[in-house]
Automatic annotation (TrEMBL):
<keyword id="KW-1133">Transmembrane helix</keyword>
<keyword id="KW-0812">Transmembrane</keyword>
<feature type="transmembrane region" description="Helical">
    <location>
        <begin position="103"/>
        <end position="125"/>
    </location>
</feature>
<feature type="transmembrane region" description="Helical">
    <location>
        <begin position="12"/>
        <end position="32"/>
    </location>
</feature>
<feature type="transmembrane region" description="Helical">
    <location>
        <begin position="77"/>
        <end position="97"/>
    </location>
</feature>
<feature type="transmembrane region" description="Helical">
    <location>
        <begin position="44"/>
        <end position="65"/>
    </location>
</feature>
<protein>
    <submittedName>
        <fullName>Uncharacterized protein</fullName>
    </submittedName>
</protein>
<keyword id="KW-0472">Membrane</keyword>
Length: 135
């Protein structure tokens, strides 16, 4: 339990910002596919499953380390929801015996985008609160 007390969200701030921007950029490439280049399948899987998973884990650790309040509760719910969707998508890909279209990565990107926007807006609000007024 001492490890959880030593976790502070400021330790994860640069990583959170980086992963949030990557998630939002990858969501943009999926939702607006008019790109002149084709994204390789391996990179697409990393962008749609790997990066959202890392973002959810980092956000969950930071929220647990910050203690309980309403914004950390929302971040925890969104993180857990994103992780559940990632697990559902991986299980569908690995164990599905029927054909069809898998919309799991799309759902993961939507959930991770909502999480990323929530985290970035929370960091923005914290930066505004800690900013000292100039005289």
């Amino acid at each position: 339990m001492d490890i959880l007390r030593s976790i502070d969200s400021t330790n994860f701030t640069p990583l959170t910002v980086f992963l949030s921007v990557v998630v939002l950029a990858s969501a943009g490439t999926v939702f607006f596919p008019q790109l002149p280049v084709q994204i390789p399948t391996a990179l697409w899987l990393i962008l749609t499953l790997g990066v959202p998973t890392l973002l959810a884990i980092v956000a969950l650790l930071a929220a647990v380390g910050d203690g309980f309040c309403i914004h950390t509760f929302v971040e925890q719910l969104l993180s857990i929801g994103t992780l559940v969707l990632v697990g559902w998508t991986i299980a569908t890909v690995l164990f599905s015996s029927s054909g069809g279209v898998n919309f799991g990565p799309l759902f993961v990107l939507v959930a991770a985008s909502v999480l990323a926007i929530t985290l970035l807006s929370g960091l923005f609000v914290e930066a505004l609160k800690t900013r000292s007024p100039t005289a």
